[in-house]
Amino acid sequence: MGKPTMTRRRFLRDLGVSAGAVPLLAGLDTLYAKAQVPVVPKKRFIVMYTPNGQLYSAWRIPIAPTTAGATAPFITDITTGAGLAALSSPTTIWGKTVASTAGAVAPPLFNSASKLLILDRLSMIAARPVYNDPTAGSLTINGVTVQASSVDGIPHPGGHQKGMGSLLTGQVLKGGDNNFGSAGLGNGISIDQVLANQLFKGKVKFPSLQLAVMGTNDLYGYDDRQVDKEMSYTGPTSPIVPVSDPFVLFNTVFGAGGATGTAMGSGPTAQQLADKSVLDAVQADFMRLQTKLSSADWQLLQQHQSAVRDIETQLTSVFTLSCTAPSAPAAPAGVDITNATATLNWTEVPGITPTSGKMLMDIMIQAIACGLTNIVTFQWTHSEDNLSFPWLTLPASQCNLNGVGHHNMSHERDPNLLIVDGWYASQFNYMITQLDAIEESGMPGTKVLDNSLLMYTSCLSDGSAHISDNAYFALAGSNGGYFTTGKLIRYNSVYTPLGNDISDPTAAALVDPLSNAWYTKTGAGGGVQTAQQDQGKVGDPDYSNNDLFASIFDSFGLEMSAVAPTIADPRFFHGNLLPGVKAGT
Amino acid sequence: MKARSAWPSAFLLVFLGCGSGTIGNPDTSNSAGSGSGGGSNSGSNGTTGGMNQGTGSGSSSILEGTPADGGIITGDGSFVAVSKVPPPSTGAVVNETITKLTAVEYANTVNDLLGIPPSEQTVPLGADSTAGGFAIGGASTDDTAQAYYSSALSIAAIATSAANLPTLLKAAGCTAPAADSGAAGATCASAFINEFAPLAFRHGPVSSAPGAVLDATMITELNALYTAVGVTQAAGFAAGIAAVLEEILQSPYFLYHLETEQQALGMYNVAIPVTGYSMANRLSYLLWSSMPDSTLFAAAAANELTTSDQVAAQAARMVQDPKAKIGLRNFYQQWLTSLSLPSGKVGNSTQILPNGTLSATSLFMTTNGLSLATEFSPALQQAIIESFDMQAEAALWSPTNSMKTLLTGETAYANSVLAPILGVTVPAGTTTLTPVQLDATKRIGILSHPLLLATYATTSTSHPIKRGRFIWDQIVCQPLPDPPPGVPSFIPPAAGMSLRQDYELLTATGPYAGKASAGQAATGIPCPSCHTRIDPVGFLYEPFDTVGSYRTIDDYGAPVDMTNITIAGFSGNDAYLNVTMTSGMQLATALANSDLPDACITVNFYRFMARRNDAAADFPVETWLDQTYVASGENLSSVLVGTTQTDVFLERMNIQ
Lengths: 585, 656
Description:
- The structure holds two protein chains of two kinds.
- Chain A is of the alpha/beta class.
- Helices cover 27% and strands 13% of the residues of chain A.
- Chain A contains 14 helices and 18 strands.
- Chain A has helices spanning 5-15, 56-59, 81-87, 159-167, 191-200, 246-254, 270-290, 295-316, 340-347, 353-369, 406-412, 417-436, 545-555, 560-563; strands spanning 17-19, 39-41, 44-50, 74-77, 116-122, 138-141, 144-147, 173-174, 185-186, 209-213, 233-235, 238-239, 375-380, 452-458, 471-476, 487-490, 509-512, 517-520.
- In chain A, strand 17 (509-512) and strand 18 (517-520) form a beta hairpin.
- The longest helix of chain A has 22 residues, at 295-316.
- Chain B is mainly alpha-helical.
- Chain B has helices at residues 103-114, 142-159, 165-170, 186-201, 216-232, 237-250, 252-255, 261-265, 276-287, 294-301, 308-318, 323-335, 372-375, 378-396, 402-408, 419-422, 450-455, 464-475, 499-507, 518-523, 528-539, 584-593, 596-610, 619-631, 636-643, 647-650; strands spanning 71-73, 79-81, 129-131, 134-136, 271-273, 411-414, 434-437, 565-566, 580-581, 651-653.
- In chain B, strands 1-2 form a two-stranded antiparallel sheet. Chain B has a two-stranded antiparallel ribbon with strand order 3-4. Chain B has a two-stranded antiparallel sheet with strand order 5-10.
- The chains are: A alpha/beta, B mainly alpha.
- Chain A binds chain B through residues 8, 12, 17, 34-37, 39, 270, 273-275, 277-279, 281-282, 284-286, 288-289, 291-297, 300-301, 303-305, 307-308, 310-311, 315, and chain B through 96-98, 100, 123, 139-146, 149-150, 153-154, 157, 211, 213, 215, 217-218, 221-222, 224-225, 228-229, 233, 235, 239, 243, 246-247, 250-253, 255-256, 258, 260, 262-264, 268, 654-656.
């Protein structure tokens, strides 16, 4: 008689509906102290950003596209066979094991193959010069000729700037008067903010969080240039400055003086106890009525009783495993953690990067586990950052451009980037494995990672050529079963840049076919950025991050054209969901 | 099939069928209607039942009558007695499954139970479903359970606040204990539960008799709940009482219109009478949209809600109670669709017409010089909504000629904000709505009320198609189908053309009759098949703009043309209405003098009662209701009470 109750629970999970968490941590003022427990979607979006693109040959998974099908999109299973073998190749950031003397330690990223969805050859179309510089002439892409323009008539130079500004906004740059000509700022709201506004504002304590490791410290001293340093925007030209100080962040999220080591205890609040008693009685009323009603009537009531049982589960679920006492970041020796200047200065010591990064990641993970936030952006420094890596063992620098530093290395296509970016990839893997270890409250057998979408990306594809075309976006987690996992999807057959020997990333000569400039291990190397370098070679089809975002919005139950018209800009968004990413399609 | 024979005496029921109100005594004194109406509908989608139903015309066209002679005079002058008893509804679907309270019923019930008016119940409930054109409690999903939960907490918090708690406990004859002590308050809590629970669950005292709703276990459970929350969990007396209220407000015993006698009898697939507390609830929710009062409960307890006469007597009392106004409002707000007033209008203050040309006169500037957007202020909207209710209720509660007054009455209600729209004057600074006399050369009756005119409009212009369709659907009860799929979008009139001419061109009617239309080309369905009916009726209301103000120049700068408006679409005995008319007043008067609106309101009230569409088996009863209404001289109470005498109201059937 009536629907089996499992059907209702499964429907509940598909909706991703859960009660907003009632954090059990002392000292927190929650949004819902008394009566209303709002319905919060059990979905999350987390972006991890690395700067300056990647060494393309280290990023690419060495498997020929023809093995993945005859036409684009080419789909490879990376959990078995040749796909897994290619993914775990130590010539790639996915497979390279990197030893570190500090910070989060995690195996290489290929160990999470079954959770990954790697998207190859998505372009940040809005970052192309033709949309950001009226003097850029015209560009013919797959038979369509676009005349150069910019939204404000100002030329916006700089691939780093355009890449970072368009990464999460899917929009062009606007505005001027910053260092490096008219650096501009992203001209639209970013996807993370749209999701926060639509789904989480008013329902969770922090609709979104923006974190960065050394986000404000510019090692070139370009402190007045913001477009490199922020990727989250509340609206056109309104970026959000991320938090770089883990001690400040911990206090913000968990409350000042948030007790370290104090037993927070677990168990229901008084309201939850009373609710449970009330709802138990209500369900008992339904059972008694069953004998007083006809079977047709009882069928109707049984649906209702099942719904009451569901909300009781939501309202009274107790976060025992996920949300016990948060551990505050350990005070570094000689640093006064009550002094925000001191702690920020401490984070900017280059060798400290892994430690402060892990602190920030751990706070973020605890905040997610406690239901305090569902949307996080996390930057490793920022675009055009020139960080050095004393905690990694790098062979003598193979490049010669103004000394060692990530930005310089990227321009030189320094083979040591395999180690550096392999280390960054292991940090992403740390995030994945941590979230995969937390059981989703109220959903035994499901992990927080299963109800999340992580996105690992950079602002550029080939950092040397300042190209934002044909980049990698690595996703992890299926966001509640929406996204397929364990796959590599390649969207076109263009290799950007052309001409590299993909089987030998340490080749003596790496050719940039666009500028015909040679960067050699021993040669002078350029650093000269010509206009030609900023013209990406695009493939056909020419999918964009905007197209990917349409699918991300869809996984949250939103339609991008309706909620984010600037991201749905028809110049960059092709009007449909990104093919191949949705499970079951 | 329903059985009307005697019941086995083993069951303790008093049967219907005694006294003069004998159910099942067929009255064949009036022949069935000839099924007039709607003959020109092609491609109709059967939107609501009752289309083409015999609107009581039968052998008559115009029905008149007086209460004294207990009958009606038909169009051919003969007198027809109207039975005091409805004909049987042989084969009609009798209420089968129980339903949940609708949102309005919940709000009214909470108000009667706890004294918290609907305006203070701020948590929205899940949406109702609809059946037969009226709201009915829908399925219960997680979201609706969540809404009931949130609503229960909010209401319990108000009811157990320090200010309100003494009032809540008054009937139990005790007060809150010192220091809010859960343990010390247990006796008072028990007294409260014993007094409050039977009232809240609406089906009488605790009883172990078969078919009784409230069992001793419920009382035990509520006391245990108080103890758990107030004492064991140490939340205190007030929290314990709040928990009891929260349980009650989410319990199926409260949320559903329970009728449990039949299950207790073990009878299926046969219609049996509804009596006692179940009947008390049916009466109160039909006539008051709320819970029974103490008189009804007493009648149920004394077994005095078993015969149809007893039911009629209660109904007659109830329609005179002030609560009947609330009940009738729930009905007519749905029948007349008066809950959909838009919340804004967008005039164009720069005198550019919708078709892009400049107007020579001040369009979208109203008579008092404001732009439309400013004119259609929240204060005006409030005045429109309240004055509509006042005008509708003044008419519908008139002891005679209620429908004629509704359609042709010249009394309206206005304050300073609304008066200019209605074209009347009130003393400056009048904030309350006061009776005014309409200019009958411009508008009469409810059909020209700004609420309907502004609802059936666009955000800046009138909309004759929507207005015409509303009248056919809701006043004539010959509904029109939705436009067929593929109809091209509206094209505004060319410069110099009026909106009327534009529609005539688009729908190939009027002077464009016989021409090809883009709509027909796109859909293959001839537009005139519906639009010869819809358009003329709508054009009669073109003198009213998108807010309901009278005007002689339309929204596109052309003069409002009231010539050559020829009504079409009435058939059979109503075909005389297919004439050329020059005003909405003429149409309203003609309709008021026909039987069509009388039949329509009675059909709608029947559907409101049955909470489903009507079918052929219902038609004889609906005809009888119409005749009763007419015979009473259009006293609507005759319909309200008469409905309680129908089989569908008096019986239920369980399907096993």
